[in-house]
Amino acid sequence: MELAVGLLGLAVLLADLWIAPASRRILGWGAAAVLTCVLVFGLGSLAPQSGMGFSGLYVVDPLARFFKAFFLLSGVVVLLMTVEYADQLAVGLSEFFALTLFAVTGMLFAASANDLTMMFVSLELITVTFYVLNSFQRGKLASIEAGVKYLILGALASAFMVFGIALIFGSANTTQFSELALRQRELSGSRIFLTGLTLVLVGLGFKIAAFPFHGWAPDVYQGSPAPATALLAIGSKAAGFVLLLRLLFGAVPEITAEWHRLLGALAVLSLLYGSLCAIPQRSVKRLMGYSSIANAGYLLLGVAVVSPAGSVAVLYYLGAYCFAVLAVFTVLCVMMNSSDTDDMADFAGLGMRSPVLAGVMTLALASLAGVPPLAGFIGKFLILRAVIAAGATHPGYYGLAAVAVIGAVISLYYYFGIVRMMYWGGEPLERLAISVTPGAGIALLLCVAGIVYLGIAPNGLLQLSADAVAGIQPAAASAFKPTGH
Amino acid sequence: MLTFLILLPIITALVILAIPGHYRFVIRCVALLGTLETAIWAAVLFFRSVPGTPDFQFEQLVPWISAGGLHVNYHVGVDGISVGLVLAAAWVGFAATAISWDIERENKLFYILLMMMISGSLGAFASLDLFFFYFFNEMALVPTFIMIGVWGSGPDRQAAAFRITLYLTLGALVALVGLVALYAATGTLDVTELRRQLVDHPLPIKTQQRVFPCLLFGFGTLAGLWPFHSWAPQGYACAPAATAMMHAGILKKAGLLALLRVAWPFLPDAVAYWMPVLVWLCLGNLLFCGFVALRQRDLNLLIGNSSLAHMGFAFLGLASMNVIGLTGTVLVMVAHAFLAGLSFALTGWVRHQTGTVEMTRLGGLLRTMPFIGAAMILCFMAGCGVPGFANFAGELGVLFGVWKGTMFSLHAWVLAAAWGGLIIAGVYMMRAIRLVLHGELKPEWHEVSDANSGWRRLPFVALLVALVLFGVAPGILTRRIEPAVVEIVKMARHRAVPDSLVGATGAVQP
């Protein structure tokens, strides 16, 4: 499947030679269509049972399948978004498509990585493509700044990670998760091993934009082209989390259980930092950058409870987050076509100008803020439930729950700021309705359907997440029995 | 049947969604028809519900989430406590739609949001699963914020919208934490299931002590418990009339209902422990908000504060912990639903006709608006607890409850304070009547018109009829309420430990 997507990227590059510059959008449509086919047929053809490949480097299990579907879906939406955004990218539209596809390939590999080297290679594939994607608008200073910032910090994080992997290999003599899992007891005494693990976590912390490895997020989110930002917000974060889950619960669950305090602290700091800094932002993309830090905090809360319920919550939350963020960025793409900035003032009166766009944006923001009956609410509910349930053993978790609530109220405040701007923020700068192309229309429809469906009928995704988690956290099977019946 | 009732406004909203925005008249007709039908069905439901039984009626249960370790059902049903509230929600919803003829801008969106509010509040009252209770409650809250922001009036409506949003969200989230903690301890959020589990094995005191404050302050904020009330008067003053009617009249009761449904029967030890605190806080509602109302010049702010004072009565009844007090609370809740709906409908009319609700700028309006003026006098009479209106019956019940309950040695003082609250209510209501309706008619108000056609009068008459009906024959309600309340009191007295361990102020008679 990864090969199919990678080849598709190459094919797009080749096809570029024959297609006139004016009609290159068709490539995006084609790529999106093929990606959809890969999603439908590829996932269908994957054997339902788990399997390993490449001498244990590569694993196909429910967790991998969950994330592969996730990445392919976001890839499709991002491609459609790029078609909409094409006018803003002065040159190299087909390269943009190809790079997006390469990044998705990297994410697909990451979903199946069962080895530290595999993890590193897939992450590098993602990161290197983002170096280019982020600085794609060469004419814009902000975009170049974003690219450089991402390059320097990304390289630093990669260096940390490689060093960590070297230390782990030096002390454990293996890089495979499953072998690490067998030997974790003897390894947990080794300082070198623990240092290595910490350094790898630093690298992953960069990917998911968690405090204190978040420094790049606001600037890069603001400067990058909107589709690249969307892919960064969804794909990069989710890739970080799938690896985090695999490493922490698949390879070293016992050490993770001891580190729950550290993870909890990271979660709280990310949550508060992201939420508080988002309040004064005027640029919507920058605001989404801070909100992405805050959301990393929520997701880390789910990890920090070290329970299957928490991991299920993480997966569900990611699913809900994905649709909402994609919807926000698609609306942004459409908006930026007409105004070229993402300042909040541009949203003034959008409710009157184009009610549909404003409605979708409101829905997405409400879902992000966790308003029922939307997807985001179920995600937050699951996280909160996992945290409070964990509080029965460690009362410190009640504190985390309190922080989560405070974060949710703050987030409502800044998301609501945009909604307020759209509906009663004064007269719009232009009265003209904004036209929505079919591509963006399909993307928006997909996102809205996802947000509403996951909120009203959460059973399906919950079951998938539970299956996915059961693969790496076998305790899941027993813990899922309802208590008290 | 309940599901149908909850869905009716949603269906109406969908129909409205399909109508192009410039067919204003059609939209309004559809909205009116939908809410009228809802109101009629709610009345049918009310009179078909069997009095004298504590069981839930018209129950319906559909499994909703069963994966991933979650067990949530869509479970609706009414008992004597909620059936009155369902009726009130449907009637006030109809009246709110009927008085919204003056909405000029974006009226399609307005009616859709209003339908969502009605459906959400009906759903919240009928839900027996607390997850769905929360779900419906939020579904009704979100439109409130948007409606205040878009159609609100007054210079600080944006601040009011923000404030009400943040307060209520924080309250709802705190309550949600409490509910989730309850879920973590018991594995279910279904009221009937909780009752079955906890009737013999009450929760450990430690768990109760953790859950209860979350519920009390969370739902308390939603219901306007002092000192978490300051969002209310400002929010209502800026809201369009229909929103204020629905929120002050109906939605605020959802928090109280949840306390009555969940906190009192399932967390009895914590309730006993927190009782003194609750009593002081509701005295804050009764006296503090009463005094604040006394000094208002804006009619809407006055009514907002007085509605908080009424909430004080409801909380006081909750604190009394005996059958008559709790019955009184439910009566106050239902009566106040109609009363608040009527008050805000009337001030909405005055604001529309004169463009202001500053009491000092008004005066002598009884001469130009005999019908509205008369309705307002009746309404204010009901507000200060004159016999013959439903509020009197409820407040009397609460006062008896306080007297009977050995709340703690202070009960005579509490009673005196509550009585003082009634006096204060009398004073500010009389003052409002004098300023707005009596006195000299200012020249600029010679042209204002009354509600002349029967059609315009209908919503006011409907609400007044309900107030008088339940005032003259409160038995219709109490026969339904009492058995359900008896059940709650029984559970509330079933404590995990003897009183002596909870503290010297243990509130319940054994």
The 3D shape of chain B can be described as globular
How many beta-strand runs of chain A?
Answer: 2
- The count of helical stretches of chain B stands at 20
How many structural domains can be distinguished in the coordinates of chain B?
A: 1
The domain count of chain A comes to: 2
Order of helices and strands of chain A: HHEEHHHHHHHHHHHHHHHHHHH
Oligomer: heterodimer
* End-to-end gap of chain A: 43 Å
Write down the Rg of chain B: 22 Å
Secondary-structure-based class of chain B equals mainly alpha
The count of DSSP E runs of length 2 or more, i.e. the number of strands of chain B, is: 2
Strand ordering within the main sheet of chain B: 1-2
How much strand content do the residues of chain A show? under 5%
Helical fraction of chain B equals over 70%
Helix content of chain A: over 70%
- Average pLDDT figure of chain A: 83
Q: How many distinct helices of chain A?
A: 21
What is the makeup of the main sheet of chain B?
A: 2 strands, antiparallel
Low-confidence stretches of chain A: 476-485
Which band does the percent of strand residues of chain B land in? under 5%
Q: What is the end-to-end distance of chain B?
A: 40 Å
Descriptive notes:
The complex is a heterodimer of chains A (485) and B (510). With 485 residues, chain A is mainly α. Chain A has helices at 2-15, 25-45, 62-85, 93-112, 116-134, 141-172, 177-187, 191-208, 217-223, 226-251, 253-258, 260-278, 284-304, 308-339, 350-353, 355-369, 375-391, 396-424, 438-456, 459-472, 476-479; strands at residues 51-53, 58-60. The two termini of chain B are 40 Å apart. Chain B has a two-stranded antiparallel ribbon with strand order 1-2. Chain B has one domain. In chain B, α3 runs antiparallel to α10, α3 runs parallel beside α13 (323-354) and α15 runs parallel beside α18 (454-472). The chains are: A mainly alpha (485), B mainly alpha (510). Chains A and B meet through α14, α17, α18 and α20 of A and α5 and α6 of B.
